[in-house]
Write a structure and sequence with these properties.
about 550 residues, 8-stranded mixed β-sheet, alpha+beta, 3 domains
Length: about 550
């Protein structure tokens, strides 16, 4: 059943609903759209993951070898990795890149994001300039740093330091074994700032400006607004940035390869480079080629990413918000087995999934819709309209003030006939003579269960007698029945349209749509039905 619920906004991460609608969800269509994506995911992602896990437990000379040539070693590849000094060095290097580089990149990118969303002039220009390194190929960018920035003879860094009078620092051999790692780290951070800046900006721009205006009125300065408003509302964005930084760091390869000599350099070696050497036999740091060994490295890196992601989800949580709704008896019955429900907010047409539970409080059943993401954009609203998307009916939302009642004569459908100059639908009026008089009528509602139709009493005098076509049977028009409906504005004239009410709230009805005698999308109706009559001119 379609149901409407009522409530109010509770501060402290609770929102009560003013109105809700259960909208039909076509499950077959959903399955049809999801099936291709699921199949492609299984083929493109799941199969390679399973195969890589299997390979990590075998000794494999080449990635192209068939399974008959694989030699099972169990966890031997993993044991060997954690006892190999060069792998430990590679893991330590990637850890330092992740930790130190993450602090630099996320801090600087957040600073740029805040500045560029503060309303400064030239926002698009500066955003493009900062993001530009992400457009350039990593190979080209690394080469630029090696040849033109860190060059000991004519490098940009040497020129800048000399111009500042830092001659001793300018003579630093940035690419020797003692300084190469830090040179690599700085260059890599430079190229990643723009990417993470855009993620920060997208989160900041979603925060309602009304919140900052209200904070300013209350006396909060910019640092206070940033600390107590911007940062708490960017928790989800922070998790995204951490995750993306971890993924890009785990796949760190090109920069390390270009900053190293022909053979692997311990100062800059990382796990992916070490994996490449074992898988394809590159460099002299390995004595044999073993694709299974390389697969084990890949699995370890994946586990590291999953661990970081899990920790972030555990430690960094968005504020939980709850929609508290009063439930009718029918709603309690319909939602008894529901553990989650989709909710649409008409205010901004956002759709979210909420965990659902319900309990009885002082004789009233209340439903709790819990959201794990921020809904601060509704914090200033005393009431919030929502639509609960369930597998049921759908209808049109109209104000209660538009609905009125009108009297109609109800006759059997057998009394209808065709006649007149336009061959229109009408009835035969018994005049007491042999020939009955034809009168056209408008059908306002057809009750298929009883085989009766509703016609306008204003078209007839009271106690008018109708004659059944091709029969001597008659009926007298003296009793009326009421229909609920609205006045549809058709070419400037008010025309009554019957409505079937599916559910209601304090202010709205949800009515059936698409009926032959009802309303359809984009119909115009009079907002105050009781003040309108059939045929009134409405501008």
């Amino acid at each position: 059943m379609i149901n409407m619920v009522a409530g109010r906004l509770l501060r402290g991460h609770h929102i009560l609903v003013k109105g809700g609608i259960y909208v039909k969800k076509n499950k077959k269509m959903i399955v049809g759209f999801l099936a291709p994506a699921v199949i492609i995911f299984l083929i493109v992602f799941l199969y390679p993951i399973i195969r890589t896990i299997m390979m990590s437990m075998y000794k494999i000379e080449s990635v192209t070898d068939t399974m008959e040539w694989w030699t099972f070693v169990g966890l031997g590849n993993y044991q060997k990795l954690f006892t190999t000094a060069i792998f430990k060095t590679a893991m330590m290097n990637i850890l330092k890149i992740w930790a130190l580089g993450g602090i630099i990149v996320l801090s600087v990118s957040l600073l740029f994001g805040v500045i560029l969303t503060s309303g400064i002039r030239g926002k698009k220009f500066f955003r493009a300039i900062i993001y530009l390194p992400n457009i350039v190929s990593a190979v080209a960018l690394a080469t630029m740093w090696l040849q033109y920035v860190y060059s000991s003879k004519f490098g940009l860094l040497k020129g800048v330091l000399d111009s500042l009078g830092l001659h001793k620092l300018a003579k630093t051999p940035w690419l020797d074994s003692d300084h190469k790692f830090w040179a690599l780290l700085f260059a890599y951070c430079f190229g990643m700032i723009g990417y993470h800046m855009l993620i920060w900006m997208s989160g900041i721009e979603r925060i309602s400006p009304d919140l900052f205006e209200a904070a300013t009125i209350d006396g909060a300065n910019k640092p206070q607004q940033f600390r107590y408003m911007t940062m708490p509302l960017l928790k989800g964005v922070f998790k995204t940035n951490i995750t993306m930084w971890t993924v890009s760091t785990a796949a760190f390869f090109v920069w390390s390869q270009l900053f190293s000599t022909v053979t692997a350099d311990k100062a800059t070696i990382v796990p992916v480079q070490y994996m490449y050497m074992h898988t394809f036999g590159a460099g002299n740091a390995v004595t044999e080629r073993n694709a299974g060994y390389g697969a084990a490295i890949g699995i370890i890196l994946c586990v590291c990413v999953v661990i970081v992601f899990s920790i972030c989800n555990k430690l960094i949580k968005d504020d939980d918000w709850t929609l508290v709704i009063a439930l009718s008896k029918q709603s309690v019955k319909d939602l008894t087995d529901a553990s989650s429900v989709q909710v649409r907010f008409p205010k901004d047409n956002e759709t979210m999934t909420a965990a659902f539970s319900m309990k009885k409080v002082k004789g009233t059943w209340l439903g709790y819709l819990a959201f794990d993401n921020s809904m601060v954009r509704y914090a200033q609203d005393r009431f919030v309209d929502v639509e609960l998307i369930m597998a049921d009916h759908t209808g049109l939302k109209i104000p209660k003030s538009a609905v009125t009642k009108k009297n109609f004569y109800v006759i059997s459908e057998d009394y209808l006939t065709q006649g007149g100059n336009s061959n229109s639908t009408g009835v035969l009026i018994d005049t007491g003579k042999e020939n009955a008089q034809f009168q056209s009528v408008d059908i306002y509602y057809r009750d298929t269960s009883t085989g009766s139709v509703y016609i306008d009493p204003d078209d007839f005098e009271e106690n008018t007698t109708l004659r059944k076509p091709d029969s001597s049977d008659t009926c007298q028009l003296n009793k009326t029945r009421k229909l609920k409906g609205v006045y549809n504005i058709n070419r400037g004239y008010a025309v009554f349209r019957q409505v079937q009410i599916l559910c209601e709230s304090d202010e709205y009805y949800i009515v059936q749509s698409g009926d032959d005698y009802g309303l359809s999308n984009y119909d115009h109706i009079a907002l105050t039905g009781k003040d309108v009559h059939e045929g009134d001119v409405i501008s």
